[in-house]
Specification:
About 25% of the residues lie in helices and about 35% in strands. By secondary structure, the chain is an alpha+beta fold. The chain folds into two domains: about 30 residues; about 140 residues. Strands 1, 4, 6, 7, 8 and 9 form a six-stranded antiparallel beta sheet that branches. Strands 3-2-5-10 form a four-stranded antiparallel beta sheet, with helices on one face. The radius of gyration is 23 Å and the shape is globular. The termini are far apart.
């Protein structure tokens, strides 16, 4: 009888410990999951500047100033993460990326872009940028597939704030990650 009691007690303790460990793992996995829409760009800029992400929530590319998020970048050759976080109640259907207001800017290099919502994301290298955003010939760009980057340069000696509207790849990616919450 005593042996049966010990076996039952051991089984109960093992079950409780196992469940506790599973719950701890779940909490750790969800700890880094952001509960809002965000875009993270790994980039470098020759000079300090400000980038913007405009967004719409109505399925159009009608971008308004009230739907813009700004983030700064320090000048220099090192890559930095520039993050745009939206509040929980904002759910974009389209995004536009603007790379700098500094008219003295020399160049901006985009290495990676990650779009995330509740831990679901899509990301791409800078060299794939124009699969997700529309190339605009008024801005001078150079793609380096080996480094996985796109560089935005002055055109005719002038740096004009480059902005890029979403291509179908970007729209499809946003629909895919926002269609269901985790």
């Amino acid at each position: 009888m005593k042996n049966k009691f010990l076996i039952v007690l051991f089984a109960a303790v093992a079950t409780l410990t196992s469940c506790k460990n599973e719950k701890e793992v779940s909490k750790e996995e969800n700890k880094d999951v952001k509960k809002y829409f965000n875009v993270e760009i790994e980039a470098s800029a020759a000079k300090s500047d400000n980038f913007a992400m405009y967004f719409s929530e109505d399925g159009t590319t009608n971008f308004k100033d009230i739907n813009a998020v700004w983030a700064g970048i320090k000048g220099g050759p090192e890559f930095q993460k520039v993050t745009f976080n939206l509040s929980e109640e904002k759910m974009p259907t389209h995004i536009r990326l603007d790379f700098g207001l500094n008219n003295d800017q020399d160049s901006v290099v985009i290495k990676n872009v990650k779009v995330d919502y509740f831990g679901k994301d899509f990301q791409f290298k800078g060299s794939e940028f124009f699969k997700y955003f529309i190339e605009d010939k008024q801005f001078n760009t150079k793609i380096d597939a080996a480094k996985g980057t796109v560089t935005i340069l002055k055109k005719d000696g002038v740096y004009k704030t480059p902005y890029y509207y979403p291509a179908q790849g970007s729209i499809d990616g946003i629909i895919k990650i926002t269609s269901t919450k985790k």
